[in-house]
């Protein structure tokens, strides 16, 4: 099953998507993570992306679609993919439909993380990420047991450049202007499933599992499931 995790910055998509991918044996594709890796490695992609990501603007569609096409060539993609942070524009969503169709596949569901603006600001401003393994923590809701070090690998925890207050505001604006229209796009296709994400991490995990089960059930019954899954 191919799944998209959609929602504003800091909604908790990555926290849940990594876990779902691991538990279900799906490939995890997060365009933001790939861009940060490219920036850290100083590759041509990273050099191009840096000016966009540090100010919270979207990297151009052509660059992102090329990146996703390449990532879909990885082993494991045939089992299904969890897309985190992609697509973010209607152009990217149309491209994803084409990329999957070329493989004889389609999207199973789009999980929309519905969360308040206050929660987003609180989550992003307290987020800390491991420089070594990429694990994500939060100073209040998910602190590392080792303080400023990652409790999985011992790496140093840092605050993402784009998690500073002025950039957070811009990312939220960009989400409203360029990404929120995807809710209607996927709603019309009967793929959108709302996840109430203003809750604790375990509660959101339960809601995600229920949403995926509902989408899989509707697909198994051969219908679009639009009544059951309307978001
Ligand atoms: P990207 O890395 O994709 O960032 P994002 O979409 O803004 O999402 P985040 O990673 O900030 O948040 P999240 O929802 O994954 O939350 P998380 O689980 O970490 O993109 C970064 C940049 O790259 C973009 O601005 C753009 O420039 C570029 N880019 C990327 N993809 C692109 C694309 N497709 N097209 C164009 N440009 C692209 O959780 C946040 C924090 O909250 C964590 O600390 C976590 O521990 C905590 N938390 C999680 N869930 C809960 C909960 N339920 N309760 C309390 N705390 C929680």
Element layout with pairings:
Elements: E1 3-6, H1 13-24, E2 27-30, H2 31-41, H3 44-53, H4 61-71, E3 81-84, H5 90-102, E4 109-114, H6 117-125, E5 127-130, E6 136-138, E7 157-158, H7 165-179, H8 181-188, E8 192-196, H9 201-220, H10 226-229
Parallel strand pairs: 1-3, 1-4, 2-3, 4-8
Antiparallel strand pairs: 5-6, 5-7
Helix pairs in contact: 2-3, 4-5, 6-7
The chain binds BIS(adenosine)-5'-pentaphosphate.
Taking strands numbered 1, 2, ... along the chain, how are they ordered across the largest sheet? 2-3-1-4-8
- The CA-CA distance between the termini, in Å, is 19 Å
Name of the CATH class: Alpha Beta
Helix content: 40-55%
Low-confidence stretches: 222-228
Which descriptor suits the 3D outline?
A: globular
**Percentage of β-strand residues:** 5-15%
Number of domains: 1
Bound molecules: BIS(adenosine)-5'-pentaphosphate
The CATH topology comes to Rossmann fold
Taking the sheet with the most strands, its summary is: 5 strands, parallel
Find the CATH superfamily: P-loop containing nucleotide triphosphate hydrolases
- The gyration radius over C-alpha positions equals 17 Å
Q: Element order, helices and strands?
A: EHEHHHEHEHEEEHHEHH
Number of helices: 10
CATH architecture assignment: 3-Layer(aba) Sandwich
Number of strands: 8
């Amino acid at each position: 099953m191919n799944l998209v995790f959609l929602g504003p910055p800091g909604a908790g998509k990555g926290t849940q998507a990594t876990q779902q991918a691991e538990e279900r044996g799906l490939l995890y594709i997060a365009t933001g993570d790939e861009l940060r890796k490219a920036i850290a490695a100083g590759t041509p992609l990273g050099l191009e992306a840096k000016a966009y990501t540090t100010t919270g603007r979207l990297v151009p569609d052509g660059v992102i679609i090329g990146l996703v096409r390449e990532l879909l060539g990885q082993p494991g993609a045939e089992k299904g993919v969890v897309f985190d942070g992609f697509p973010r524009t209607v152009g990217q969503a149309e491209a994803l439909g084409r990329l999957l169709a070329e493989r004889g596949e389609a999207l199973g569901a789009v999980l929309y993380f519905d969360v308040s603006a206050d929660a987003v600001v609180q989550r992003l401003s307290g987020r800390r990420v491991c420089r070594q393994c990429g694990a994500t923590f939060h100073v209040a809701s998910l602190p590392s047991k080792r303080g400023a070090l990652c409790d999985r690998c011992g790496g140093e925890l840092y605050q993402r450049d784009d998690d500073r207050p002025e950039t957070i505001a811009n990312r939220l604006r960009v989400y409203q202007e360029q990404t929120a229209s995807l809710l209607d796009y996927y709603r019309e296709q009967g793929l959108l499933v709302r996840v109430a994400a203003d809750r604790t991490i375990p509660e959101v995990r339960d809601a995600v599992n229920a949403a995926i089960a509902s989408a899989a059930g509707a697909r198994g019954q051969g219908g679009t499931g639009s009544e059951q899954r309307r978001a």
